[in-house]
Amino acid sequence: MKDNIFNLAAAVCSVMVMMTVIPSCSKDVPIGDPLDIDTGYSLPQEGASEEDNARIMDIYEKWGSYLLYKIDADDIFWQQISGNASTGDRVNKYTEGDPSYVGDMLDYLDKIWWRYFPDDFMKTGGAPYRMYIVEEYYVERDFGGGDIRKYPADYYIGENFIVLGGMSTVASLDEAALKSKKIALITALWTEYVSSGVLTTPTEFYTVSDYTTKPEMTYNPTTYSYEYTPEQLEALRNRGFIPNYSQYGYSVYNEIYMKYSETNDTWSSSDPRSNDFNYYIAQILNATDEEAAEFLKYETVATKWNIILDYYKDNYGIDLRAIATE
After folding, report:
1. In the β-sheet with 148-153, what is the strand arrangement from edge to edge?
2. Cut 0.85: pTM above it
């Protein structure tokens, strides 16, 4: 039994895509006697092919994690979240999947998650105690007067478990969709790994840049806002600061320092050390090689970038740039 990771609330991201149904094949593979699980489940469950159940048993034997496709709703998290009749009460819900798609889901999770993390890491916290695979996970919101709305998402990360949707659709995802879903899931998992202590951060990273002296920005009376001059932006990069990643492109509001007035700026209202590390992780996981090269031409940025890459490769066997570029 493991008693690790996953203490955050919902991590909800991209809307699920409807795709072509592709049935999985079956193959007779002996999988041994059922394993009793203290949650009331037992392995192997019934419905999936012998081959797919054998793969699930292998996951348990390698990582000590239970991958489940037949689910008791009361066993997961289906409690009221928050809201009221005017803002929309929110409840987590799911639709159980067809077991014939279990193999597709196992292939999908291996492509976007499992293959990037070594077994030693997965069995010591990288894999949650329970992994529920379903047809669809969604948040249902009741705004009153019969106005009930449904918000699908790819996954839900909870305490010691994760719910992953898309059983009948993942087999038809193209490479672009797979990469998008991979980055979204691993980014959410990475945040939880760090916050729960499954991953530690390199202390050396925080010794490179000055987190005391505020950067400089210049007020533009035409736009009524503070902006970086080219020289100020260059100075920011030379100090080792890069912007947070955004799929919508560069914005000054993604920089580690943003000044709104003489008394209001992000340096004072947030933790620049934490933001700095998170921005590097976001860029490492998302930036193309060409985008990364624009940052790495600055010596201080390259130093901090490589500290992170080397730390996770040497200590955990995780290649962050492989996640971003493969």
Report:
1. 89-95, 136-142, 148-153
2. no
